[in-house]
Structures are given as C-alpha cells and as structure tokens.
Amino acid sequence: MTRTRLLVVTAVGVAALVAAAGFGSAARQPGRQFPYGRQPGDPLPLPEDRAGVPNWKVDPSFDRDVFTFVRIEYSSYRGRRGGSWTTDWPDADLNFSFRLQQLTSLRVNPNPISMRLTDPRLFDYPFIYIVEPGRLTFSEDEVLALRRYLTNGGFLMVDDFWGDSEWENFRREIGRVFPNNEPKELPVDHEIFRCVYHLKEKPQIPSIQAAWAGKAQGITWERGHDGDVQTVHYKGIFDDKGRMMAFIGHNTDLGDGWEREGEDPWYFREFSEKKAYPLGINVIVYAMTH
C-alpha cells in the first residue's frame, strides 16, 4: 500500500500536526460484526480486544488530559431506514483514535468509550459523536443534557445518514435541543475544511459496499434511500456568539472510512486516506481549538 506524505501544518494551541507523517499500512484486519441494537448494560468488548489495532501507553501524569473519542448511545424507533448507535462500533472508534495518535501531537486515549447523554461523565469530555441518527429519538432528559453540554463548550459530530426522511428525523430531534438554531450549510472555504488538511471539495464517503457497487460508474452515494442522496451536506449549528457547537455530515459516511480501512487497498486509498481521515482530523482539531 502506498504511503502518503502529509502537509506540514500548525494548529493553534492543543494540537499541532506532525510534519511529514505517513498513514502507512492499514490499522487493522477485515471488520468484525457486532450485535445490532446493543442496549445499555450489554457487555462492551474487552479493552484488549483491539482486532489488530496498535495499542499505546498514556503517561500516567496526563491520564486525565488525553483526548477520548466518545460515542453517544441513543434509542431508536423501529422503521425501514436508519441504523443504530452501534454502527461501525467499536472498530471505527479504535482506528480513528489510532490515526489521531499517529498523525497529530494530541495525546489520545487508546480506548474509546460510549455513554448516554444523561451520563454524569459527559461533561468530562469535550467531543462526542453520534452516528446514523435516521431513527434517533431523544428523551426529554437527553434534550436538556445535550443543550447544556453544547452551550457550555462541548462539541458534537454527527455522521452517516442519507436521504430526506433520515434528515427530517434528525432535524426534528436536534430542533428540540435548539429550536432557534437551525443547521447552516458550511461553505467549502470554511476553516473546518482546511485547518489541517486543505480539502478542495466537500468529500462524500460511501460505505465500502456502496463504493464497490458504484466503482465502475464513479458513484459515491448510497442508493436505497428517499430523496436526494447524491449531494453531500456538511452543516454547522452555532451558538449566539457564532461558535460552532455541532458539525453534521449528511449523505456521507466517515465512520465506514475509518472502520473498513483494512479491508481493501483501493477503498483505503480513495476514501479512508484521502477523505475520511483528513476530514475527521480537521473536525477534531477545529473542535479542540475553537
């Protein structure tokens, strides 16, 4: 697999990219399957069950100052489309944490975690991730907790949902959190697309199966959803002072680009290396420096 030399970049404050670092070999071997619809209280994978993802030690003197990837557990209503909070879990989280440790000067926790929005530990972490919110439903307590978290400086990344119905479901639920803060489309020259890696277009990352199915035609969107799935959207939700509180990727799937990087050299080169990891790293650096 080819090595890509990274740009020399300086990020303000908490993270500076390591000059000329390379992705190298894919982080892990082909993906595992975990039970669909895991519920709170079900056993998590053991910390040592890393499926080939390299491990590293955190300096004990900084054990509370490391970046931890936090995935949000949520409830879903039953329906035809939309997935679960367990989609791509835990391999996407493990791979992304490894790449963040490998390619930036951030001190990163090798063990990502998941929790509910009502977990009292939520406010210990500056970044949270929600995947496949096409059938997500928030309780009233979760609405209040997420509003409090984001207005007090937290940052939310939302990923991997497609088409009109899934968008409307998420827009309705996030609208309960912020009735007066409508998501705004981000222009391609926004800082989040260039704060570390300079992305010249808004990248669309398909699942690995959709990428294989559309390879010959150059199709990078996932079919089988209603409405427009060809147009990738990246939107932000801002507070009253103009700080971005949430970054929303619609009609794209960064998580699969992280999870499935070890399964196909072509998918790794075209989507993981060029798009999913660069944008994901940009989002983290932006979130941690604004």
Low-confidence stretches: 1-21, 29-43
**Tally of alpha and pi helices:** 6
Order of SSEs: EEHEEEHEHEHEEHH
Distance separating the two termini: 35 Å
**Helicity, in percent?**
25-40%
Across the major sheet, the strand order is: 4-6-9-8-7
> Could you state the oligomeric state of the chains shown?
single chain
Strand portion, in percent? 5-15%
Largest sheet: 5 strands, mixed
- Radius of gyration, Cα only, in angstroms? 18 Å
- List how many beta strands DSSP finds: 9
User: Average pLDDT, to the nearest integer?
Assistant: 85
Note the overall shape: globular
Q: Output the structural class.
A: alpha/beta
List the helices and strands and how they pair.
Blueprint: E1 70-73, E2 75-76, H1 91-103, E3 113-116, E4 127-131, E5 136-137, H2 140-151, E6 155-159, H3 163-177, E7 184-185, H4 208-214, E8 233-238, E9 244-250, H5 254-259, H6 265-289
Parallel strand pairs: 1-3, 4-6, 6-9
Antiparallel strand pairs: 2-5, 7-8, 8-9
Helix pairs in contact: 2-3
Task: Report a brief summary of the structure.
The chain is of the alpha/beta class and 290 residues long. It is 27% helix and 13% strand.
Verbal overview:
The chain has 290 residues and is of the alpha/beta class. It is built from 6 helices and 9 strands; from the N terminus they run ββαβββαβαβαββαα. A 5-stranded mixed β-sheet has the order 4-6-9-8-7. A hairpin with a 5-residue loop joins strand 8 and strand 9. Helix 2 crosses helix 3. It is globular and about 45 Å long. It starts with 69 loop residues before the first strand and ends with a helix.
